[in-house]
Amino acid sequence: MARPGYLRLAILALAAALAWWWLPGGVRFAVGGLLTLVFLLVLQFYRDPRRTPPAGLPAQAVLSPADGRVVDVSRTNDQLHISIFLSPIDVHVNRAPVSGRVVELVHTPGRFLPAYDARASVENERVRLSMDAPGLGRITCVQVAGLVARRIENWIEVGQTLSRGERYGMIHFGSRVDLTLPSGLSARVQRGDRVKAGVSVLAGPGAG
After folding, report:
1. Does the residue 149 lie in any domain?
2. Cβ distance 196 to 51 under 8 Å?
3. Of 83, 130, 175, 200, which one is the catalytic site residue?
4. Which domain range does residue 96 map to?
5. At what angle do helices 25-45 and 5-22 cross, to 10 degrees?
């Protein structure tokens, strides 16, 4: 389970227990049942499964930073752009797509448009992580808040070195992650594909 969920789940569990214990008759079942349902929904949202990157990957392979559905694969000025939409039922812990040093971590205030809207990438609340990856160059990964997600968390600092697949933060509830990759890489996914953080290969060396 992701660390940010500990306190929220403890409060919900206590509230549900008190409702089942103290409230009378039908009110107990209504309130206690509702709180129990909310607890289970929040529990599944904060799940943090153990992930191991596939063995034998080339050093330039780029893993998905998020669980979800690929909503954009495009190229601009020879840079490859891949966007992933995370629904409220997806795992929301984000992982480093490559190994490298964190050179930038910038928070930008903004709107809360639905994360599947293309405008969300430039108008919504977001945090941009930039890494220098040996043999690849500059990699940029942007966590974008959505309509429900109002908080983005990061557990890293500028200057820190991350390993490919290492946890570095999370976005609460529905959200989006945009990845910008340098030239020399080609996509290994297409729009509509489902991907998993730290496991699915998004891009690799080669023209495309």
Report:
1. yes
2. yes
3. 175
4. 62-199
5. 170
Rounded distance between C-alpha atoms, residue 14 and residue 35, angstroms: 10
83 has catalytic annotation: no
One domain for residues 139 and 164: yes
Query: pTM for the whole thing?
Result: 0.82
Phi, psi of 2 (to 5 degrees): -70, 140
Q: Write out the two tokens for 200.
A: 């699915």
Does any domain span residue 135?
yes
Tens-digit pLDDT profile for residues 4-39: 666 776 877 888 788 888 888 788 788 878 888 877
Q: Does 28 share its domain with 129?
A: no
CATH number at residue 131: 2.70.70
Interatomic CA distance for residues 119 and 24, integer angstroms: 49
> Does residue 51 belong to any structural domain of this protein?
no
- Quote the pLDDT of residue 142: 95
The span from the CA of 127 to the CA of 125, in Å, is 7
